[in-house]
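Problem: given the chain below (73 residues), write out its structure.
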Amino acid sequence: MQTISFKLTHEHIALCDLLKLTGIADSGGRGKSMVADGLVILNGETEYRKTAKIRAGDTVRCEETEIIVEAAI
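Solution.
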């Protein structure tokens, strides 16, 4: 499993935007469909909210990639 460290520049980021910015989804639409299809795990639970607010300390897993979200301070 690949692990990506993502540093936030704001307080939070929408889940579908995170998937796009990390390269897991090739577009925002693809990111939204991945979430809707139940392919995204947020902090150990399946997440179905496309625009869920992802904050520092959260862990997102999709396909064979895990994203660790960190504050950019």
